[in-house]
C-alpha cells in the first residue's frame, strides 16, 4: 500500500503539537501491560481539535477510496476507532458498526455493535496499531460474521515487527496516516526531542521488551 510522505509529516506534526503523542526518554511512560516506553500515544485527543479531526477524517476518506475502492460498511475498533470511524462513515454516506474488545457479558453478548451482513465489504478504522493483536481480533470478528474485510486504516503505527508479521500472516492490508519513523523525524526537526535521544528511541522500536527491562533495572 502507498504511503504519502507529505500527509505523514503533517499528521505527525499535528500529533506532537496537541500532545496526542508524547516522547520522553528520561522519564519513560508505563503502559497498561506494565512495560516501560519512551512514547505514549492517545489519538483520541485529536477529537478535541476540529481542524485536526477534519483533516484526519478527510485523509481517511481519500485513502479508503484510493486503496480499497467500493466499500459497503465502515467499522471502528473500540474504543479509539469508534469516533474516527463514525466520522468517516458519515462523510462517505455509509453504514457504521464497531467491534468490542470482547463479547458483552450480558444481553445479546454482542462483539459487533451495529448491523453487518454476510458478504458485506468492510474497511476497518483504528486509531493506533501497536502489536496488532487487538486490531486483527476485530478483523477476525467481522470475518466470522461473514464480512469481506478489504483492509484497515489507522492514524499511527509503531511499526513493530510483531505487528508487521501479524498483518502479513493475516494477509490484511494496513495503511496508516503516519508511522513511528516519520514521527521521530518530525520530533527532531521541530525540536520536541534532542538528536541525542534518537539512539534510545530506535533501540526501543527494535526491541521494546529489552528496552523496558533495562529501564526497570535502572529503577524507573
Computed structural class? alpha/beta
Give the helices and strands as they follow along the chain.
HEEEEHEHEEEHEHEHHH
Major beta sheet, specifics?
A: 6 strands, mixed
Output the strand order for the largest sheet.
7-6-5-8-9-10
**How many beta-strand runs?**
10
- Count every helix, treating DSSP H or I runs of 4 or more residues as helices: 8
Taking pLDDT < 50 over at least 5 consecutive residues as the criterion, the unreliable ranges are: none
The level 1 CATH classification is Alpha Beta
CATH fold-level name: Rossmann fold
Number of domains: 1
Based on the coordinates given, report the CATH architecture.
3-Layer(aba) Sandwich
In brief:
This protein has 220 residues and is α/β, with parallel strands linked by helices. The protein has helices at 5-17, 50-68, 80-92, 133-144, 161-170, 180-189, 198-206, 208-217, and strands at residues 21-23, 29-30, 36-37, 39-41, 73-77, 96-99, 112-113, 121-129, 148-157, 174-179. The protein has one domain (5-209): Rossmann fold, CATH 3.40.50.2020.
